[in-house]
Amino acid sequence: MSCCLLDFGRVQELRQVREFLFPKHNSAGPEEEKTQAENELTWDDSDWGSWENPDGKENGAQAEEEEQQQSAPWLQDCVLSLSPCSDLLVIAREHKAAFLSAKWRTGESGQEEMTLAVTWSGTLSAEEGECISSVICIPLASQKRSSTGRPDWTCIVVGFSSGYVRFYTESGVLLLAQLLHEDPVLRLKCRTYEIPRHPGVTEQHEELSILYPAALVTIDGFSLFQSLRACRNQVARAAAAGSDVIQPPPLAYKKWGLQDMDTIADHSSIGITTLSVFDQMKNASILGGFHASVKGSPPAMSQYITVGGGPYTGFFYAIEGSSQPLLSHVALAVASKLTSALFSAHSGWLGWKSKNEEESVQKQKPKVEPATALPVRFGLPDSRRHGESICLSPCNTMAGVTDDFGRVTLLDVARGIAIRMWKGYRDAQLGWVQVSEARGERDLATSPSMPRRHAQFLVIYAPRRGILEVWGTQHGPRVGAFTVGKHCRLLYAGHRLMGVNSVTSQGWQIHTQQVCLFDPVNGALRAVTIPFHLALSDKKSERAKDMHLLRRLTTLLRSREVEPALLESEAQSVLLDIKHPAIKKQALESLLSNKTAPVSCLTSVTRALLASLKEQDPEAVDESLLQFCSSQLKLLQLYTDVQLLHTPDTSPTEPEQPSFSSIEEDLARVGPVLQRYTEMNTRPCVSFAQDSSEPLPVRTFLSQLEWVNGELRVIKQPDTDWTQLGSFLFWGCLSGQSPLQRVCETLQESGISPQQLLSLLLSVWLNKEKDILKCPDAVSHLHTLLSTLSSMKGAVDESWDGQCVSPWWQQVRTACVQSESSAAALLAALVAHRVAKNAITRLAESKFQEWECVSLELEQWMVCIKQLEDVLALQTLLCLPSPQGPTGGSVTRCSVKTLLESGRGGVADCVSKLLFRQGVSPDLLRDILQRRGENEPTQQPAQPGGEEKLEGNELLECVCQRFPNSLSPDVLFAHCSWENVVQWNKDPEVGQYLEWSVEFLKMISSPHIQLGVSAMMWQTFIVKRFSAAAFLMEKVGKAPKDRLCRRDVGMGDAAVRSFLGSCVQLLQTLMEADSAVEEVSAPDVCVEEVWGGAEGPVSIVELALDQRSVHYPLVQHHCVLASLLHATMTFCLRLKPLSLFDSKGKNAFFRDLSSIQLLPSGDTDPSLVAVRQEFLMNVLTGWVKVLAESEENGVKHSGAEDMWPSVCMELSSLLQVNTDILRRHLVCELYNQGLDLRAEEVMMEVQDKDVLGSQLLVLTGQRLAFSLLHSQSQTKPNMELLARLPPTRCTWLKAMDPSELRCPSVPLSQSSRLINKVIEMLPENHAQYSLALHLLEAVDSFHEEP
Predict the structure, then answer these.
(1) Distances in Å between the alpha carbon of 998 and those of 384, 587, 1009?
(2) Which of 545-549, 718-722, 767-771, 1284-1288 is the least confident region?
(3) Which of 53, 307, 754, 1005 is the most exposed, having the fewest neighbouring CB atoms within 10 Å of its CB?
(4) What 8-state DSSP symbol labels residue 498?
(5) How far is 835 from 843, CA to CA, in rounded Å?
(6) Residues in domain Rab3-GAP regulatory subunit N-terminal (predicted)?
(7) What would the pLDDT profile of 954-998 be if each residue is shown by its tens digit?
């Protein structure tokens, strides 16, 4: 009930606007930009405390002040204008401007909030050297009958230093430009239609006034409105037709030459005024003397007020009809064309010439009409004071004036006198707020025809002090003060919508903002809200007195140290003294919501207030206040009664032994899983300590209960609030500290429905699971409470006949299936099932119902309990701690409802996420599932204990037994494969994720599922990175480095190598699955019977089965490319992979695998085959080098490394390369590396022995040449061996180059064995057969000698 400053919008992109308007800031250094950003986003407290002591600043703060002036007050150098509808903001400086329009978005709190974002920015000046001097936004009303008061569009009027006035749309399109005077435009102001408050007020016409240093131009609002609409329509038609915009005709205006003032800074157009007869005679006597004549009727005059210097304030009066509207010579010259132009299709807007024809005219400045002299009638002379601005009140009766002395003067417009002055407001900015009195029903009944009262408040923003003040006028006190920033701007339009009149405004609710404070620090737009009663005098207003009492009570409640007795007496006194019912209710609400007031005080005060209301005349008492007091007193009494029962019960009620014995049987059945769940959830964790002995605060209790039609209801709020209230009512009973029967009787007598009591009981039970699991007797107490609540009147419908489900027990089941507290939900369901079964049995015995009618409710309970048992086992598994610690991911909570809503794959999805967090490998999961298949389906898991890993395996086996269909091996493997590839996509550097994903994929036994999952993985995650890697290698022509891989593929070079290997495995799996699809039928996706109602997202398996079949040759085509890329990255080879394929092959890459593409066929170009052969040879060479290095280092090579020869042979058949050539090359490379045994193994598969023999003979010669000729020590045996050879053979050995051998130092025994292999391969008629024999004889003789 006091003044408040509320945020109603926010300006976005403010920094971009500043950089656009102040380009010099963009050239600042990094440190300066950082400082500027911090100043824009933080509070400026460099001048903190200047409000109290403006002159007491220290000299040491001058540097900070200079920095502040350079960075923060940039908005003071700009011209700002906000539309009165708050949907458009214009910020301009020099020749640039930015238009910001309103947009609505959803904030963090979920509520819609308005933001202003830049929609247009650019340069507005057209003449050289001109700058923007004034801007005003005028919203134009819609002419449609369906309009409700919102503007059709907004026109931006801009005045320039050249004298031009231009009109723009919101998108920066120029509509109209006119030179009315050759001096700079000082100020633009607009007056729009206001609904008269009573018949005596003269209806004012709309107009736009433009102030120049010595002239004032006024444009009639009606003609301006019509012209702007026509210009906008013409621009839209020209844009649609693609033609040039036609120059529109000029506006009609009046120009007054203001005389007898030295300088003019601002003005206000008051409108048409009519003097009274006395004022007319007085003015005539002053102006004409004693013999002056007086006209019969006072003339109508337009009043203008200017501020400046000499005099300080000037009052001008222009008699209506004394000056004709002015038109420029252009309009007069073309007036004769008007008739014919209306029927000309090519004449443009109203027949004026086109743009090209008027170029010569536009280059010349238009003629400026002379002004009509208007002398000042009187003023406020003050030779030293200079006025800076004037702000007219909404009712045109007062005006606020600022000057260079730091004063704010309040003028009486009609009398022309200063009635009030404030000092200490240098550089002040003014605005007005007009508030209407709210009329109650009683006022409308007593005086419906009386007009509502209005109050006007002057808003003053003092930037030097950083304070915004609200003052009542004319002589009212300061009613509000707010501490704001020192660089804000107070935006006051002073007008509303243009184009509104007394007819069109009927039924409209024009939403306009009167005063707005713009804070450039955070971009907030704030509106000042003022209640009407602040304008009333304290002596005459009961409401003001009541507000004073309310503030007194609020101050008392805020004080921390106050005695309860003093608080009770003061609050009671204040409440009884307040007269107005609404304020009395507000005071009572403030008292009841106080957190320190004791309940005895609240009860006493409320009882006293209720008694005083009952003693008054019933017709004079507000009925709503009486009902509120009565209901709150009942709630306080209930709170007191329940609080007294929160004491340990001396004779607790014993539970029913027969019923509880049956519950123990159910508990024994779920005991192992329940015990393990309890152990999982009772591990040490961080929690906030709460005082459990502290009762529920009374204000919270009152805020959650309400009386509706004589019934006590719980207000629907979040679960935490329900839990808090439920704990207050029932936790004492559940923990055995309160008498169950007495508590239930008290609650039943209070009027709360049994259904809401049941909701509160279930809320506290389901949300305090940890405390319940620690309390051994909680289950028995819950049994007693449920039995008692079920026997209450209105709980179970007496007319229930068993043919349908009971709403009472359905409420229990609904709460259990929605709860994520699995153990508490299962216990509640078991207890409720037993209570319901006993009640149904008694009902059947009393009414002799058939068993078929009873079984319907019990069947619902059996399904619910089975679902809750399954969820408990699953939740126990999900609670396993992650091996990565707290960063491994939070525990997934599930309920029956979430599993039913997650579709048929919800269970497998949860388990796959858990297995990923646990780091379970594919082999380990396969072993666990195989053990599950070997066990009996009915076998229960062992008791908890042993190692953590064993415990996790047992839990997984238990869950798989409960979900035999949802967690079948193929379904689980498919989900694990998908989860791993999803995680790999988030972190591609970890190649193990993708490798495990492919391994899981290979374990799927169904080819249909395997095919679908492979195709989805390829299309969703793989093909984009795969194509990026291929194009990157094609670009660089070799295995790319780590930097390039990270830039193009998104992972390092090592990760790319692993990724390409996984791509090969994935495509091979896809081909194998496609080959086996025809042999078996597609499997059915089924779930367990109790989970048959699952609805939600389609599972991975269902999506896989819906995938289209792939085109096998296209998959094989991609597999060849993947193998080539993998080999290139593995052995760091040079290759442009796409160059190994013709145009058909290139075009087929990276297409949808299910599409039919045109693939290469027939014989390939020999040059292409040669390039392929060379690359495959390089792959074999690289493999041999890696193999030799691993054997030299003693590293045991894996089986994956031995697969490269077979891969090359498979690729050779697909790439039309001769396989035998590759084998011969591999044999030679192995001998070259000294791996003779491996070479002999491969030699057996070579077909062309003759060529291989010739190649190996050369290699043998290189070995012997190194041993005999190039060795470090030339021994005597070596010389003798050379002597035995014929000269031709010696020459042949000397011609051999042993530098080509990578392992030249090979024992002669291996060389002898190699020569024997050569002799075996060469036929006797071969040209080199004799050479091989000579070499063999020489080597053998060398071995025979000692």
Answers:
(1) 90, 70, 13
(2) 718-722
(3) 53
(4) B
(5) 12
(6) 74-491
(7) 888 889 989 999 999 999 999 999 999 999 999 999 999 999 999
Mean of all residue pLDDT scores within the chain: 82
Q: What tens digit of pLDDT does each residue of 797-849 get?
A: 766 555 577 888 889 999 999 999 999 999 999 999 988 888 777 766 666 54
**For the segment 545-572, what is each residue's pLDDT rounded down to a tens digit?**
788 788 888 888 888 778 888 888 999 9
Give 318's strand partners: 302
Reading the block at residue 920, the tokens are 């379970």
Residues 6+ apart with CB under 8 A from 792: 744, 748, 754, 757
| CA gap 73, 92 in Å, rounded | 15
Nearest to 80 by CA among 637, 491, 551: 491
Provide φ and ψ at 205, rounded to 5°. -90, 155
Tokens for 627, please give them: 């009902």
Among 245, 210, 208, 209, residue whose Cα is nearest residue 230:
245
**Tokens 């009165």 belong to residue:** 84
Distance from CA of residue 166 to its chain's centroid?
40
- Dist. CA 646–CA 971, nearest whole Å: 53
The answer to whether residues 700 and 717 touch, using CB atoms and an 8 Å cutoff, is no
Give me the residues paired with residue 132 across strands.
160
Q: What is the pLDDT of residue 1113?
A: 94
**Which string of b and e fits 1034-1072 if b means at least 16 CB within 10 Å?**
eeeeebbeeebbbebbbbbbebbbbbbbbbbbbbbbbbe
1200 token code pair: 């994956």
Contact status, residue 1107 vs residue 1012, Cβ threshold 8 Å: yes
DSSP codes, 296-334 = SSPPEEEEEEEEEESSSEEEEEEETTSSPPB--HHHHHT
What are the tens digits of pLDDT across the range 944-964?
A: 333 333 367 888 888 998 999
Q: Could you tell me the pLDDT band of residue 345, with boundaries at 50, 70 and 90?
A: very low
Q: Copy the structure tokens of residue 17.
A: 């606007």
- The backbone torsions φ and ψ at residue 517, rounded to the nearest 5 degrees and listed phi first, read -105, 120
Q: Which residue has the higher pLDDT, 1074 or 692?
A: 1074
Q: Which pairs with CB-CB distance under 8 Å and at least 24 residues apart come from 285-292?
A: none
Q: Which two tokens stand for residue 132?
A: 């923007």
Which residues 6+ apart lie within 8 Å of 811 measured at CB? 755, 758, 759
Helix axes 1249-1268, 1308-1321, angle to 10 degrees: 150
The phi and psi torsions of 379 (rounded to 5 degrees) equal -165, -175
One-letter amino acid at 1272 equals: Q
- HEC per residue, 520-588: CCCCEEEEEECCHHHHCCCCCCHHHHHHHHHHHHHHHHHCCCCCHHHHHHHHHHHHHHCCCHHHHHHHH
Residues whose CB is less than 8 angstroms from the CB of residue 87 and which lie 6 or more positions away in sequence, other chains included: 101, 102, 139, 151, 154
Q: Among 388-397, 646-655, 878-887, name the most confident range.
A: 388-397
* C-alpha torsion sign, points 695, 700, 702, 705: negative
| Separation of alpha carbons 771 and 763, rounded Å | 13
Quickly tell me which residue has 């030339």 as its tokens.
Answer: 1274
Cα 352 to Cα 346: distance, rounded to the nearest angstrom = 10
Residue 474: pLDDT over 80: yes
| pLDDT for residue 716 is more than 50 | yes
Stretch (H or E) spanning 1026: helix 1023-1036
d(CA 571, CA 605): 7
User: CA-CA-CA-CA torsion for 1111, 1113, 1118, 1124, nearest 10 degrees?
Assistant: 170
Residue 27 is classified by DSSP as: G
